[in-house]
Specification:
OB fold (Dihydrolipoamide Acetyltransferase, E2P); 2 domains; 20 strands; BirA Bifunctional Protein, domain 2; 494 residues; elongated; 14 helices
Length: 494
C-alpha cells in the first residue's frame, strides 16, 4: 500500500474507533457561545478587570484543527473558524477516560470545545478544555503545514484547500465581499435602484464579444448567456426608472489570461439626464469612498507603483495620447488597410482582415494602456469602436465615451448613451455589415426589441460598466484574475 493510501486508511480506522466508542463523528449541530475572535476579545476584556483571577467563565468554541501537538497526557490544538483561531488544551486529569477520544483526532477534523479561557506561560490565550465533541472527521489529510499548496493549478482547482492552507487567501475574498458591499452602499446612497435582468437572452448584445450558446428545450429555441446587461437596463430607463444598476455575472466565450476569465462580475449603472462627464465624477468619488472604507486610505500600491485614487483623475484625449505614444494620428488612417499598414511599420502584426476600430483598439493596447498607471480617463473614441454611444457634437466621427485605467489595466467603460433610435438602427446595421466582412471579429449585434423600446423615447443617459474582478485585483494587490475568483475556469483534467 502506498503512503497516501495508508494515511487514508489510518483516518478511516480512527473514524471506526469513534463509532465503536459510541460517538457520532458527524453530529447534526453544535452550539458555540463565541467565535474564535470573540473568545479572544472576551478574554482580553476580562483580563483588564480587577477581579480577574486567571480563568474566565466557560466558553464554547468550534472549528477545524489546524495544529495538533500531543504530549502523552495532554495535547494542544489550534482550532480555527472563519474569524481566526484559538488554542485549546486537553488534559487527561480533567477529561478522565474521555481523553482517549483525543487519540482519534487528526489535523483537519472539526471539533467543539468547552471550558474557561486562560493564558499559558508563553502568553497564548487558550481554552482549558473541560469537554469536547468531534464534529466532523476529515478522511483526507490537509496540505503540509509550512508550505501549503505550492502547485498553483491545484490552488485554483481545490480552492477549499487553498483557503485552509493560507489565511491570507481568505483575507482577499473577505475584502472582495467588502468592496462589493461598499459599491452597493455608494450607489444606493446616490439613489440608484438595484435590479436583476435576464441571464438567458435571445440576442447577445450590449458588448463586442463572442457569446456562449445554449438551447431551451421547452421553447425549442437557442439562447445565449448574456455578455452584458446594458440593453435591458436601458429598457428600464425607457420605462421610467431614473437610476438603475446591476451587479452580476456575465459570460464571454473568449480566452483566459491574467486579466480575463470567461465568466466575470460586472457592474453596470445607468442614470437618466446624465452624461459621461457626470459618470467620470461619480467613478472618482465611488473609487475613493470604497478604498477608504476597505483600506482606510485612497493610496494603494500596484506592482512597484504608488497610486492615489483620490479625485481628480487625469483626463486624456484618446487621439492625442495615441499620437504622442506611437506617432499614429488616427485621422490620417481612415481605413482598416491604412491603419494596418501603419501598425506593421511599428512592428504590430494584424491577423488577416481587421476593421479600423479593432486595429485602433490594438494600437491603444500596445502603445497607450501600459503607460496609464495612475488613475486615468481616456476620452472620446472613434464612432466605429462604440456603436451604442452618443456622438460628440464638436468632433464628427467621435463619441462621448471614456475608459478608466489603473495600473495599466482597464477597469471602467462609460458612454453618453445614444438615444436616437434611427441612428442606433444605422449603427447596428453597420455592425452587421462588418460582421459579414470580418467574419472572425466580435461586433455588436442587432436587438430589434431594444430598438422598439428606444422608439418610445429614452432620455439623455449616462452609463457605466465596471469589471469588479479587476477592481478587486487592484485593491488587494493581486497579479492575476484567478487570485480574486474563488473558482476560476480550468480545463477539465483527463
Amino acid at each position: 500500500m502506498v503512503r497516501g493510501d495508508s494515511l487514508l486508511q489510518a483516518r478511516r480506522e480512527k473514524l471506526e474507533r469513534l463509532r465503536e466508542l459510541g460517538i457520532d463523528p458527524y453530529p447534526p449541530r453544535y452550539h458555540r457561545s463565541h467565535t474564535a475572535a470573540e473568545a479572544v476579545s472576551y478574554f482580553q476584556e476580562q483580563e483588564k478587570d480587577a477581579s480577574y483571577e486567571g480563568r474566565t467563565e466557560p466558553v464554547s468554541v468550534a472549528g477545524r484543527i489546524v495544529s495538533l501537538r500531543s504530549m502523552g497526557r495532554a495535547a494542544f490544538l489550534d482550532v480555527r473558524d472563519g474569524t481566526g483561531k484559538v488554542q485549546a488544551h486537553l488534559r487527561r486529569d480533567l477529561l478522565g477516560e474521555f481523553f482517549q477520544v483525543s487519540r482519534a483526532l487528526d489535523l483537519g477534523d472539526f471539533i467543539g470545545v468547552r471550558g474557561p479561557l486562560f493564558r499559558t506561560k508563553t502568553g497564548e490565550i487558550t481554552v482549558e478544555v473541560a469537554e469536547f465533541v468531534p464534529l466532523s472527521k476529515a478522511l483526507r489529510p490537509l496540505p503540509e503545514k509550512y508550505h501549503g499548496l505550492r502547485d498553483v493549478e491545484q490552488r485554483y482547482r481545490q480552492r477549499y484547500l487553498d483557503l485552509i492552507s493560507d489565511p491570507e487567501v481568505m483575507d482577499v475574498f473577505l475584502m472582495r465581499s467588502r468592496i462589493i458591499s461598499g459599491i452597493r452602499r455608494f450607489l444606493d446612497g446616490q439613489g440608484f435602484v438595484e435590479v436583476d435582468t435576464p441571464v438567458l437572452v435571445p440576442v447577445a448584445a450590449g458588448a463586442m464579444a463572442r457569446p456562449f450558446v445554449t438551447h431551451h428545450n421547452a421553447l425549442d429555441q437557442e439562447f445565449y448567456l448574456r455578455i452584458a446587461t446594458e440593453l435591458y437596463l436601458k429598457r428600464l430607463i425607457v420605462g421610467g426608472f431614473d437610476k438603475v444598476y446591476e451587479l452580476g455575472r456575465v459570460f464571454r466565450n473568449e480566452g483566459l489570461d491574467q486579466d480575463h476569465n470567461p465568466e466575470f462580475t460586472l457592474l453596470e449603472s445607468y442614470e437618466a439626464y446624465a452624461d459621461y462627464n457626470h459618470v467620470m465624477s461619480m467613478v472618482e468619488e465611488m473609487m475613493a469612498q470604497v478604498a477608504m472604507e476597505v483600506l482606510g486610505s485612497t493610496s494603494i500600491t500596484v506592482g512597484e507603483n504608488e497610486i492615489s485614487l483620490a479625485p481628480p483623475w487625469r483626463r486624456l484625449s484618446l487621439r492625442e495620447e495615441l499620437a504622442a505614444r506611437s506617432g499614429i494620428d488616427i485621422e490620417e488612417h481612415p481605413t482598416g488597410e491604412s491603419m494596418a499598414a501603419r501598425l506593421r511599420q511599428l512592428g504590430v502584426r494584424s491577423e488577416g482582415s481587421e476593421s479600423r476600430g479593432r486595429l485602433i483598439d490594438k494600437a491603444l493596447s500596445t502603445f497607450v494602456e501600459p503607460h496609464l498607471i495612475q488613475p486615468t480617463f481616456l476620452l472620446d473614441y472613434p464612432e466605429e469602436m462604440s456603436p451604442l454611444a452618443k456622438g460628440k457634437p464638436d468632433m464628427p466621427g467621435y463619441v462621448e465615451r471614456f475608459e478608466g485605467f489603473i495600473g495599466g489595466m482597464e477597469v471602467a467603460n462609460s458612454y453618453s448613451e445614444l438615444n436616437d433610435p434611427d441612428i442606433q438602427r444605422e449603427r447596428f446595421e453597420e455592425q452587421e455589415r462588418q460582421r459579414l466582412e470580418y467574419r472572425d471579429e466580435e461586433v455588436e449585434r442587432t436587438d430589434h426589441d431594444f430598438l422598439i423600446s428606444m422608439e418610445h423615447g429614452m432620455p439623455p443617459t449616462g452609463g457605466l460598466g465596471m469589471g469588479i474582478d479587476r477592481l478587486v485585483m487592484i485593491l488587494t494587490g493581486q497579479q492575476t484574475i484567478r487570485d480574486v475568483l474563488l473558482f476560476p475556469q480550468m480545463r477539465i483534467r483527463e
